[in-house]
Batch of 2 targets.
Target 1
Amino acid sequence: MSVEALRPGDLEVIAEQLGRPPRGVVGVAARCVCGRPLVVRTAPRLEDGTPFPTTYYLTSPGAVRVVGTLEAEGLMRQMTERLAEDEELAAAYQRAHEDYLRRRAELGEVPEIEGISAGGMPTRVKCLHVLVAHSLAVGPGVNPLGDEALALIAPVWRPDRCTC
Ligand SMILES: [Zn+2]
């Protein structure tokens, strides 16, 4: 299982980033060059039994903010339209969906969310934060639309240049 363990102090930083105590966090999937968590890995079932499909969760406040700006600019609708027209992109996005499910299953099977990933995958884009978190966690070449969003925000936010 490719989950990086939590380091001492991580949960405190994550609580500060989210503005609330984190729930179900089992590891850190991506870190800033400064060491602070950017993306957390969350259990597919929370302690109270709630199914939680979003296994990669973007916690970096700077990234959350700039990705929110992309969402406000209408990028999700444009991407969803392209998915309907571009077979190659649609196939790559389908593979991203399957990758997401496969990696989440490493943390346990949850029947209520079987086959359901997050962010609108595999046919729509409903949350860019989910796609960016996936790309940051697994690296380029897996989630094409997460990769695109990361490229768009790179002038103001990137994981290899600390803006924490
Ligand atoms: Zn940093």
Target 2
Amino acid sequence: MNAEDDLRAGLGRLLDGAGARRTAAAVERLVAGYRGGGPAPALRDRDDVAAYAAYRMPATFQAVRAALRALAGAAPGWEPDSHLDVGGGTGAAVWAAAAVWPDGSRPTVVLDQAEPALAVGRELAAGAAAPAVRAAGWRRHPLGTAGSAWAPAGLVTVSYVLGELSEDVRRDVVADAARSARGGVVVVEPGTPEGYRRVLDARRQLVAAGFEVLAPCPHSAACPMAGTADWCHFAARVQRSALHRRIKGGELGHEDEKFAYVAAARPDRVGGAPAAGRVVRHPQLRKGQVLLRLCMAGEGLAGTTVSKRQGPRYRAARDVRWGDAWPPPEGDGHGLP
Ligand SMILES: C[S@@+](CC[C@H](N)C(=O)[O-])C[C@H]1O[C@@H](n2cnc3c(N)ncnc32)[C@H](O)[C@@H]1O
């Protein structure tokens, strides 16, 4: 079973055990907490964590998977030999890594301050098919602890965490991630202007520490969206299970999780290269034409129209999606040189 289906099945079992009514009440508290605009609601007990897992984990899993896929696409010869997930909660990033690199049995550690989140993460992981998920270690660790030295890891992920930290702790966490990462660092945040700004700060810090940005940007230079009214973000489709629909009270079979991210790597350890460009908006389909909004190496933000006369390039443009590399990599079936 792939990691996505496996996680869905595990969440189903977890929520059956937790009781749908109690979970729904806890989701309401959680949603009110997130909407309140104050500090993020703490995951205090098993009900809170079951609610987080039902309400948010499928979406954070998809966002992190998309970011890790983009990293894997830019560095196809590399695979992390170990993984540290910082502020990992119930372990969405660990499952996402298993979806992108399913064969590895890499040592994996999740750090979080919330013991109830770690306990549920551990319980979910115990039923996983992927060896890296099953064998993961779950450690209580409050971020911002002076002198904390994390063990080195091939990949360090920091997903949906920076927004819960003060600016000083945020800076320290990114510095610690850079120090600890032997290969790559992936930071994921909500796809809001604030989430993008936090990603941008992390990106600057990682570049200053000698990392190369491999995705989504086609370069490691200044972001052309910085200082404009626009913000770089993407969307990942999340299929809702029946339980997810009931808890979220929606009719739609899916939702789109908006996220911002940066995947950066040590060039001497990871190799690879960023794509020449990235599609930064939903492509617009017109009769015989596709309009693409791109971020391109060298040119920055650019609009381009691909017309039917361009043959394989047009067919590629019709299939490309917001967030994909452009032009598509060679050998993807579009016959592009
Ligand atoms: C929104 S959740 C994200 C969890 C997971 N990374 C994901 O993508 O689903 C934020 C997590 O950060 C943890 N966290 C927040 N502040 C922290 C701190 N100061 N030290 C350690 N963990 C912290 C929370 O306990 C929670 O599990």
